[in-house]
Amino acid sequence: MKEVHRFMLLLSLCLSLSACIALSANTCPADLEAKCGDDSSGDWKGEFFPGIPKIKYEGPSSKNPLSYKWYNAEEVVLGKKMKDWFRFSVAFWHTFRGTGADPFGAPTKSWPWEDGTNSVDMAKRRMRAHFEFMDKLGVNRWCFHDRDIAPDAKTLSETNANLDEVVELAKELQKGTDIIPLWGTAQLFMHPRYMHGGATSSELGVYAYAAAQVKKAMEVTHYLGGENYVFWGGREGYQTLLNTDMKRELDHLAAFLQAAVDYKKKIGFNGTLLIEPKPQEPTKHQYDWDAATSFAFLQKYGLTEEFKLNIECNHATLSGHSCHHELETARINGLLGNIDANTGDPQIGWDTDQFLTDISEATLVMLSVVRNGGLAPGGFNFDAKLRRESTDVEDMFIAHISGMDTLARGLRNVAKLIEDGSLAELVRKRYQSFDSEIGALIEAGKGDFETLEKKVMEWGEPTVSSAKQELAEMIFQSAL
Ligand code: XUL
Ligand code: CO
Asked: Which terms does the UniProt entry file under GO BP (predicted)?
């Protein structure tokens, strides 16, 4: 195993080195000795994306890949500026820590600013690249795990010091801009200590470590002005029930989340706490399986007032639902808080985290968002990564532009559907038999069985109308 690690490290160094050779004059040599500009710390302050302009709206006829065709931030659609409907966010872990590695292959990306190390200097340089990226893209929200942005060290206090140093830089870079985190989170799945889970680990010491890590991650999210805080339990679940006390683990998870609520209040953090459901991967069975399971858990433990849900489309399909189903389940229960915008692949059974480019899917997503009146203080976080084979720096921009344009088309299509009105009318008509005296009685919870039996005797066999599915699909399709 050690050999494999050494090989991977060597390979990634080689890839970075070949990138060094290909560097243009404006680009910082990707090693800490090079010290670009006047900065002797290696914390380079040069331009990271030379040749990439600020991305502007050019309209649907534009052939320029580095422009928006459908997303026009300031344009008002359905009574709100597009930027306020979406509140787009860049996911630091995919965009700046994604290497293209997969279980079978080495990293494929060799971004010019990367030096192959996981040092604090490298973390700071990467953070500067991230801010230039957001500025050029015109996106003012970002999401992070604590360990994406700063390296782990030997002790928790050393790790926290690393985090503080990078967070201080992020705070400085945010100054004078409207950029803030959409949400922060603690990475409770990578380190071997979390192999049995964090809050649901069988080891008390690990539960405590996870608590300390979440405490710090909440503090830095608050310090950076973050609007939400996410709990995704990739290791909170089980591999087999034979060795698992499920009730005890779920009780521990609830106690952990309650402690997070208490700490949030103690530090005056007003952000929304979000649970991100996912059925499996990496764990065989994850407790936050889907929106309905998470809702039942929150209800059982009296936490519905304190949490909302962060729905991720690829997680929805992994749980056997459509993204639209998960969004509607969250919405009708008052829990739709945020969307991790991505999509899976219909032929692949795992979390491929692709940028959403399906206009029909985007329209369904936006139907829920519009019905929800938007997502604020949540938004759309691009929890999506470039394909392993996409290795140009400009691909980072193209992927986000394409994802943003797709959702913008979804919003515009919803506006068409609402203006047209026939889909809403079809649904209204379908339930119109309940717009009656007896219907009102039933909906008020007063439709007792004796009364209804009497009515059946009086009415005889009911008439049953067509569901008009094909008509509904025709109307939907005509808006795309
Ligand atoms: C994993 C996933 C995470 C969460 C944050 O599938 O979606 O990146 O969004 O931990
Ligand atoms: Co996610």
From this structure: D-xylose metabolic process
